[in-house]
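Q: Fold this one first, please.
A: Sequence and structure below.
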Amino acid sequence: MDYAKHISAQINVGIRQVEKTIELLEQGATVPFIARYRKEATGNLNEVQIAAIRDMLLKLKELDKRRDAILQSIEEQGKLTPELKALIDNAESMTELEDLYLPYRPKRKTRASMAIEKGLQPLADALQKQYQCNVEQLAMPYVNEEKGVNSVEEALGGARDIIAERVSEDIAARNKVRNLFRRNAMLISKVVKNKEEEAGKFQSWFDWKENAMRAPSHRILAMFRGESEGMLRVKIAPEDDEQVLEALERQFVRGNYESSEQVAEAVKDSYKRLIAPSIETEFYNILKERADKEAIKVFAENLRQLLLASPLGQKRTLAIDPGFRTGCKVVCLDAQGQLIHNETIYPFTSVREERAAVSKLEALVEAFHIEAIAIGNGTAGRETEEVVKRCRFKNKVIAVMVSESGASVYSASDVARAEFPEYDVTVRGAVSIGRRLMDPLSELVKIDPKSIGVGQYQHDVDQSMLHDSLEDVVISCVNSVGVELNTASKELLSYVSGIGPSLAAKIVDYRNRKGAFHNRHELLQVERLGDKAFEQCAGFLRVRESDNPLDRSAVHPERYALVERMAANVGATVEELMKDKELRSKIDISKFVSDDCGLPTLQDIMRELDKPGLDPRAKFEIFEFDKNVTKIEDLQEGMVLPGIVTNITAFGAFVDVGVHQDGLVHISQMANRRVNDPNEVIHLHQHVQVKVIEVDLRRHRISLSMKQV
């Protein structure tokens, strides 16, 4: 198969662009590297397009692998004809391949195979010719008690079984049924008998029916989850089977004879017993894959927004992991996020302890020159925030609520144990909360993305597909921001283009033994980090203290000589060129165009010289909840409150208004909604104003609106 031609047609990208991208991928180049540093080769394709080419290439290779296995199997059976080989060679989908293979697939014992063993195949052949005849007389010679055929009816039944299997293996017949399913199949859900009470959370789907191919992903996944838990029975089938049967009978039934009636009966049996269940399974998988992709897309976009959340930056931080009975774990971190002090305060056990907690916080802030306070947003979070507000600090200190989602996963992980072997999980959790405020990306990469809690039905979707998609997002975010080589954790380094966990560990080991890297090229002294890995990673790593100012930028080392020529062209050093906008304005980049370095790369270089190593993340903004609302009982319909978006799904967005229970803004309540996609309107961690439209205290549900707020 011509991979480039096929992919080009599928994603509407030029064949030459696809060919060059495939060539780079086959050479071991990563998606971020190709998108950032090989724009001329790919015609300026972005990461999404390059990833699509990579994924389609893998699927096509899997298709060819399956094609080869099928050809080998049929050839070993001695049944491979030139015509069949041509059909298999030209098949463009797994479904088409499997349909062609179906008649030749080694089968377990079936009703048809048992009938053939009883010698009934000639009778089936005769009936399928549909001549005018007496079918009982035709079947009589096949009655043979020794072979297990005890009557004419048994002979005819066996022959019908053979015909039914032939019908089920006919490609045209299967495609007819497929097309009718595609147009008319309904997704039908019923509650399992006597499970009504137990299945309460699936009540919406107790008696549900809708067009299967138009069902939204969240409803499909909800029903499929109900089925997997044994609460619902889900079926995918056309509303009217007669339409399907008529189409099949038009194909197989010719004439109005007794033999034709036998064929018609076999066709009906084939549809009910063989084709319909097979196609239903196929469509179940189609719906599941489509729903998985949509849910994973939502999860991936949420994760991207979370990872690229605004960092506070390198500030001396006091972090609090709140708790009522067990107290609040307090840690103090230096500007690099290193733990320098920890202890526990108990502000909620008595008035005396509350006063002691306030005094302790004031003392810690002064002693460690704290600039910011991070407060976990879980249990006792709002109450702890109130305690902090009662403190009287000598200098200005900002206090910020920080999401705890996934912090407990990190605190109990091998990564946390290796970093803080002498401290318990409560200290590790508090450290994670503080670091998340300083740099969300650097801290969140230590946690399995699935544990961060910004997904929709994340445990129901294809886990391999979810893992690959989320890893792509993490890699994309890490490389778009860039990584400081001398301070990055092993986990953060492992996501840098071309590095991975093994090389990341060796980089950290080298750094621990030899001290800080002096420049990018020193990376080549790391064990097993060769020229290819250096090519892939160097541009995404920063060495702020390097003697070469370009090491602080995203300019790739392969272009250093080019920048030096630019500087020489205006009679300056590289450092002078980076500092002086007027000098840069004198450069005519068109004069530096070459076969492998075109205008896109030159424009990127000029942007980097202007703002070397610029962090693409938005500026940090402080957010505060309504001080009069701390619990769900404080909410009243009609209230307008500040909130922060915590999760986005296909059906709406969840917003934290500071009552320990997120409220739902249904998609119908989105402000200025243009399409059925909340990502078009809002983003994760966005500060919003919402109106309370309903509070269900019994079920702990809050309904919010962003309309006319």
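Q: Good. Now the second chain.
A: Here it is, same layout.
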Amino acid sequence: MKAKHRFILAVIVLGLLMTGPFVVTSLLVWLDMKDAERTMLTELLLSRLPVGTMMTVFGFAVGVLVLHKLFKQYVEGLLRMAETLRLMLGANRNFRVHIEGPPEVQQLAQAANDLAQQRDALMDDVDSQIATAKASVEEEKNRLAALMSELAQAVVVCNLDGRILLYNNRARLQFKALSQGPTSVAGGALIGLGRSIFSILEKSQVEHAEEVIRQRLHAGKTAISNFITTTRGGQLLRIQMVPVLAASGDEGEAAMSGYVLTVENITRSIEQEARRDQVLHSLTEGSRSTIGNIRAAVANLIDYPDMEPELRERFVKVVDDEAAKMSQGLDLTMGEFSDSMKTRWPLEDILAIDIVAAAQRRIEDKLKLPTKTEDLDDALWIKADSFSLVFALVCLASKLQDHYEPRELRFRLTSAGKLAYLDLIWAGPAMSSETFYTWEMDAMQIGSETSPLSVRDVIDRHGGEIWYEREKAAHRAFFRFVLPVAVPEIENDQEERSRGKGRPEYYDFDLFRFEDKTIDLDRKLSDLTYTVFDTETTGLEPSKGDEIIQIGAARIVNNRLLRQETFNQILDPECPLKPESIPIHGITEDMVRGQPNIDVVLPAFHEFCEDTVLIAHNAAFDMRFLQLKEERTGIRFTQPVLDTLLLSAVVHPNQESHKLDVILERLGITIGTRHNALEDALATGEVFLKLIKLLEDMGIVTVRQALEAAEKTYFARVKY
């Protein structure tokens, strides 16, 4: 029976206790009296009825007030204490019962706090022992995760259902770059823990590769399978699959429990191969007619030795013209072919200042020649074969030392569009062009170290150029290496790394046991994947024209809040912001100007949270904004929605407030900023993970049970 029902029952009992004995006694006396006595008693009671009634009502009211006071102090106080004790047992072990109420309740609260303190001491000791026992295992897992995260090749590990349980940073960046759909908005990506690899790769090809591996395992051969597939954006990927083997199968053989995919984007190399084939084809086909004309002219000259001089001169002219034409075409074709060959040498993306630093160290160690730098662009990335490039720089420095004896060398690093300029500068006399040409074409040598390459070979390998120039005013000269600037992907790579603040959570080995099922309302809350989200808006009235200006979201997989698999996008509401709302969310007119509108962002958000249960705090508010955009965008969110405000009211019905800030304090959750959509979404996710355990303690273990319990709360009646 609920507390309020018990209070009503107590009031009824009080009323009966106050009036019952008087009524029963009066009835018994009435039955024993004679008519004259009854008449006299009636007149007496009627004359005193107003005063008696007032005294009865006053006494009843005082009794109700006393009863209500005792009820608040003892019944409701003990109920709040029970909720607090459940918090201490589960979600927030540091929480303590407030010492309030009558002395007896205060003593009980103090005893509960003392027991909690003793429990915490025991748990700390147990946790310490468990942490020591798990340290070795965690170290191995972290070492593997760190290794995988830093690999230069894209690696993805999946279970047999195709759910991603590990991926490295290169895979995240590569698939993000390949995305041509709405996932490219707001930092969304196709890849993520718990997501299906089949959203990226063709399912039939992956399943065929699995079957090939099983057959090779059965035959005792090397378990590996390769295939090539295309992405939605038309990119070609070469995939290599190797199995993750369990201890043993049903027949004692190693059983496949998942697979490792290494992914390589071969689009550019295929295009280069096609270009090279085209160059060779044009070389052969373009020369066919020229050779035919030459052969015909030569045949006529041989067959008719006595032909007239004018005619002979004409045939000779044909041979000369066709030979010149063929030579010109051959030079052009070989030039293109040479460019194609240059790009085939593997170049790495590297910070240009690292090349300079390496060259400085070698020059100072090998040549004992001081070096300095000037005008260095420390954010410049280049594509280079770092070993041969440093060798070329040191080789030129060695020749300068032998011939011109400079006091020091200086390095300068600048950029111009897609080109990087790396200058080796010295002060001294001018160099002749013949000397520069000789240094450029000779095989490189530094003391006893030699290389079969020349400086020109190194430059050609990079598809670049080298110049010799004078700074007459400064009495200096320099060699300028013109090198290709690296593609922006690496810059984004470093930006993402620095933003991540440590190694990202790109793995979860427990997902090997993940079962691929659609959203089932009767599954346990702890078994599902969630998207927790929040919105910032121009105001609080969606039905009166207020608009979304930011959507932030994060995913919960395997009871982990993935802080680096997030969605965060500011929108252009296409209407003025309300001045009174700007101090709340901190988003200004300048910040929304030029941002994508709801037509672009909502499909991206829909794809981000596909096949997940939605979670929000005061979800009715956020969902109302999304529902009002269904007709405009054609996007509908049909998955179940859980509301942490309602769930908090379910587990703590006797608490006065269920605001997010209050819940965070109650559950012992500390966060940074608030009223930012992504930060609020992350805070809501932390709250939900705490509430799962509290709901389970109440017997609410499935999504259906959570939804039904939430609908019965008072706050579920609020509409927007």
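Q: Anything worth noting on the second one?
A: The chain is about 50% helix and 20% strand.
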